Amino acid sequence: MVDKQFRYAQLYVIDVESRQARRVVEGKPARIGHIREFEWSPDGQQLAFTAAKTPKVQDYITSEIYIVDAEGGKPKKLTKNAVAEGNLRWSPDGKKLSFTAGATDELEYFHPTRIFVIDLPDGRPRNVFGDWPGHAHAHFWAADGRRIYFTATRGVNVNLYRGAGHAADACSR
User: Fold this and answer.
1) Dist. CA 6–CA 70, nearest whole Å
2) Which residues fall within 8 angstroms of residue 52, CB to CB, at 6 or more apart?
3) pLDDT for 7-38, tens place per residue?
4) How many angstroms from the chain centroid is the CA of residue 8?
5) CA distances in angstroms from 82 to 3, 62, 85, 110, 138, listed in the order given
6) For the purposes of burial, counting CB atoms within 10 Å of the CB of 17, is it exposed (0-12), middle (13-18) or buried (19 or more)?
7) In the chain, what's the furthest Cα-to-Cα distance?
8) Which has the closest alpha carbon to 42: 157, 145, 168?
């Protein structure tokens, strides 16, 4: 019985006035998995989230990215690989979704953490800074959506960087 009956984290929206909770993701929790993080779209109409196979720590690498209408429904799976994705961020216009993953361009595991972008609704994840020599951490989009700012480790230093296309440079202090 050990590791057989999990409690899966799920997404709910609560109406502040009525205090009614409504589950957003249709289907059995075990089918979607354990929701680990989520991010509202800029227009508030969709939610992006990651879900892993189970809540077990070692299953973190089974996480995949999904989007679902904020009103509820069946989620759309955006990734399918053996890489842990995280740090979801919507572009300001809501047409792209960025995330970090310790992976190569082909989303192979155990590589430096990179920033990937998916062009919605049907794009494939692409590594936006190529073989940039660092480990990306937190990131956010510039207000105009043309650049991504991020913190990253290079050697023993953590700095703030900005990038566009396949280039990234350190921000001046």
Assistant:
1) 25
2) 33, 34, 36, 59, 60, 61, 62, 63, 64, 84
3) 888 888 898 999 999 999 888 777 788 889 99
4) 18
5) 21, 6, 9, 10, 21
6) exposed
7) 56
8) 145
